[in-house]
Amino acid sequence: MAVLVIPLKDTEWISGVGETYRLANWKKLIGNIKPGVEYKQKLMVHLVPEPTNKYDKTAVALHVNSIHVGYLPSDLAAKHFNKISAVYKRKDSLVAYGSIWAVKRGSDLNVNVSVNLPESIDLASLTNLEDAPSQPTRSSASEVSNIIELPSSQKETKAPTTTLREKIAADKKASALFLVLIILFKVFVTLFVAAAAQGISGTPVAALIVFVAGFVWIVFGKKIKAARDARKK
Q1: With CB atoms counted within 10 Å of each terminal CB, which end of the chain scores lower, N or C?
Q2: Which residue ranges does the record assign to the HIRAN domain (predicted)?
């Protein structure tokens, strides 16, 4: 089974119809879009005849990545139906260069699929997908089977949460470290007072106290700050 491509004609873009009835399918295709963000992608679109369609016997569905996203307008579908069907009767499938567009306004999702379709489909001019040239920008023809992903900036992420047990543990840790600092400070003050009472010069003792206090703060200060920050989350 070959995948055949309709040659690209830059000026002959056709907008699909019926997309709003298939929003669930569109959400599977493009995922969640944040309100106000416009999403565009050039890709290949499968043209699938539906001779058993009870509303239109010459309907041609538009599929992207095996997902039904819309239809050709009925007049164009009727015009090209026989040739499109002829491709499928040969057990081949037919794709056209196309694009999808979506934007979310509030809670409403607006979508559109377009295909590049000539006035007349020349079956002799169809090429295999592997040999088809790429579109002028973005996706290449070989990307027909790739699932489209939103840019990472559009993907929803959840901020990490802190459990009650973690908060209690952080609170205990911060309190213990703070208590150690207070005890050490009292010890240093006691030593300083004792040294002064014995007539020992206060300058070297004070310098030693400052040095030790600074060392303790460097070791424990960041841990205390981290523990307090954890309590605030």
Answers
A1: N
A2: 39-84
